[in-house]
Give the backbone structure.
Amino acid sequence: MTLSEPVDLQEFRSALGSFATGVTVVTTATEDQMPVGVTASSFNSVSLDPPLVLWSLAKKSNSLGAFQESGHFAVHILSSAQEDLSNSFAKSGTDKFGDVNWQPGQLGSPTLSEYAAKFECRTMHQYEGGDHIIFVGEVVAFEKRDHAPLLFYRGRYAEAHPLTKRNQI
């Protein structure tokens, strides 16, 4: 593609798929404390001091209002054994928490019992990002476990394997 050519969205999406991402479930609660959650691969660190992370959500998501209004969210980095959970939270309009073990976190967001890492965040900023809203949160609590993360690569789930010394770059 050159600057004068229109963007082929399918090709652009395919090119983005060359970047392996972690898979997360991001949760919050509505005003009446109903749990809300989505699968997202758009998670990233922003700053160590203060501890900030970001993720983004499509403007057309049914969950957008809850995330915009709650003032908090929890990001759960999924383990390689959690494909089913990822698929469940990726579906629109289903009871995502029905068979999931969770409890309210420090700020009120639902926190799942299983994950590779968890970050509880206070929403600091919301930015327009094309067809998404970018949420930046200050991490108020976190926990990590010794589980391999679930990855998404070229449109499919993948698993991370540490490189041995001989095949490291």
